[in-house]
């Protein structure tokens, strides 16, 4: 991380899916800039490891598919650290299910786990964010729906829906000083992916990308930081693809 963003010092930032990977890297990046970070995840053990890496990070275990728990999460976080000035909606789950075999429950759970809580959290934090002088929402989508891998219809729907949500938030909240943008990562070498990396996987990834280097969680975190910063003050309603040039 090369840029310094003094505006984050003392500001309250919430990052979901922070127990590992992109979420952990993002929480640590904001903490390094002096922000007070509420790190959210259902994985309490991984969340504790994230919080142990920086004193400025407060762990908050929450099932984001439970709207009552989500509402309580926001209330408790704001009572502890004040208005949330940056919301990073990173949490999500990919699960391959053949479209002909998935149940209604499968479909609804995938949308709840990958899309619904982005909107619900935005609705919860927006009033406080606006009253505090504005802020930024960064939603994590994916390039998966752009490339149309098989047996991921519900996941594709949710990740594509994040772009529509982002543009809607940008229009509806812009007058309150709130910007909303999205990031669509490509193949990122998170802890989960690292265990599956082979020489063939690396070679295939390098061949697909214009830039033949593996994408790290910190690469996505740097983009999140920039989009949330004053350096991007006139950017809203956009989706930045960070995939080394595949799409």
Q: How would you characterize this protein structure?
A:
With 247 residues, this protein is of the alpha/beta class. Helices cover 47% and strands 16% of the residues. It contains nine helices and seven strands. The protein has a seven-stranded parallel sheet with strand order 3-2-1-4-5-6-7, sandwiched between helices. Helix 1 crosses helix 9 (217-228) and helix 3 packs parallel to helix 4. The radius of gyration is 17 Å and the shape is globular. The two termini are 24 Å apart.
Short description:
GO terms for molecular function: oxidoreductase activity. It contains nine helices and seven strands; from the N terminus they run E-H-E-H-E-H-E-H-E-H-H-E-H-H-H-E.
- Strand proportion, as a percent range, falls in 15-25%
Task: Please identify the structural class as seen in this structure.
Answer: alpha/beta
Order of helices and strands: EHEHEHEHEHHEHHHE
Helix content: 40-55%
The Rg value, from CA coordinates, equals: 17 Å
Straight-line N-to-C gap: 24 Å
Tally the beta strands. 7
Mean pLDDT: 96
Write the layout of secondary structure elements.
Blueprint: E1 12-16, H1 21-32, E2 36-41, H2 44-52, E3 57-61, H3 67-81, E4 84-89, H4 104-131, E5 135-140, H5 144-147, H6 153-173, E6 178-185, H7 191-194, H8 199-208, H9 217-228, E7 239-242
Parallel strand pairs: 1-2, 1-4, 2-3, 4-5, 5-6, 6-7
Features:
seven-stranded parallel sheet; 9 helices; alpha/beta; NADP-dependent 3-hydroxy acid dehydrogenase YdfG; 247 residues
